[in-house]
Task: structure prediction
Amino acid sequence: MAASALTATAQNPIKVNQVGYYVNESKVAVVEPTGKSSNFILKDHNGRKVWSGKAVRTLKSPFNDKVRQVVDFSTVTKPGTYTLTAGKNKQTINIAEHPYNEALKAAIKAFYLQRTGTDIEAKYAGAFARKAAHPDTRVLIHPSAASPKRPAGTVISSPKGWYDAGDYNKYIVNSGFTIGLMLQAYQLNKEHFEQIDTQIPESNNNVPDLLDEIMYNLEWMLTMQDPDDGGVYHKLTTPNFEAFVMPVDCKQDRYVVQKSTQAALDFAATMALAARIYKDYPQYQPFCKIAANAAQRAYAWAVRFPKNYYTQQDNNSKYDPDVNTGTYDDNDADDEFFWAATEMYLTTGEQGYLEQARAFAPKQFTLPTWGNVAGLGIFQWLNQELLQTKEAGKLKTCCMKKSLKTFCDEDIKALATSPFYSIFGNSASDFIWGSNSEKCAGRGIAQMYQYALTKDNTYRKAAITTIDHIFGRNATGYCYLTGFGTQRVMHPHQRISAADGIEEPLPGFLAGGANSGQQDAKNVPAYPSSSPDESYQDHEGSYASNEIAINWNAYLVALLGFLK
Result:
């Protein structure tokens, strides 16, 4: 999209889901004050009027003085492309039976574009092809990770995997969370994911592309386990973040650093879960045996070292070189023990793991995040009930389910007064770093679990409002999925997109979204507003609002996987 076109659409006061609306679900637009009108008209591609009406309500923003009109044209159910008019302003509307299939495909394909150590081929990536970099066949043991059989400076090989975010490092904690979230969604939505063809090198091998893509990162994760004691290195990293250059131009040495309890447990949970899912595919059965064994050894290491938390600042005071990349640090491992024990029991059937899961089980539901994976443990026990496995009921989930329902119902109450008709974005606390992921899409996933448990369509409708926000019905007007929408994210905080010389960014990535913290304010142009829901800028330097990350994409993949 040309810059002039982007500038023009950026000012459109009609905020809509720019990807599309379901034929038989609600269709709502929100009109900003500058687009105020007393009557709204929807016309089809031939210019025929198919609907007209007034705003169903007018609501004031909780963050500023803006008053917005809510327009509901849900009675239009015929698939097609339409134009919504508000005074002198117009906005394109798409209605389809399956409006998000291409978005889901792109969000999964984005992981291929994040692969390390392999050529990204034009056959699969088009203009975004690039030469292999970071083979990681020469990775050094950092002094913080040294052991008798692997002293500091030992060279190991740790190939494959995905770049974690806008940087070029690989992190076990976030990889484990990312894979766990997607594989759990896959368990409940196999038929949907099996239909997605992302056109990657492994396509057409009789394995769903999602599983093939995840395997590329699982194989890297296996290399991060110390073969001597079963511990797992926290991350594979350069000492400092690379400049905004292409991967082939990176020159720093790469290290594996300190083994951590959280890394070991997230690794154990992920490997145990993968061992169950991939056993149905003959080509991956050898991996399953290796993964199950690796999971048991990692869990045993965590039991021996239950509070060996990653401490980057302390490490830097003791060892050289200093490491100043992402920490993924966490001072509580109870949630990791719960998730890991859950997956280990379901894979091995060993009573000891069940007792551990019971001991660490939370009383209340919380949205799963990389720093609090208890929600993944809860989701897995709910999966057992929904799939009616023999393990269902082995852990009491009544309090968890009651808490989940309360959480979902409280969010739904906000719809009546939500200026953007969404369960997300009605409180300043929603707009954190990566708000589009855990706070927005995460809420949608919670609603879909409640829908799966009750078959009450109220919850599915609530989940869809989070997608409406992500795809453009929000205060910024941006469709936050790169490559999609009429007002697109063009400059994500991602080194490849910034350095590859291509105007369009790599497609299929979810931008972080509005962040009231504005932690990067001193390093980027002035934010357009101090309002929490407008604290976003499409600038490659804005790591606080415009970065991409594998875990953020995982939320979107999981949510769209539920929305068949």
Q: What stands out?
A: The longest strand covers residues 89-96. Residues 1-9 have pLDDT under 50 and may be disordered.
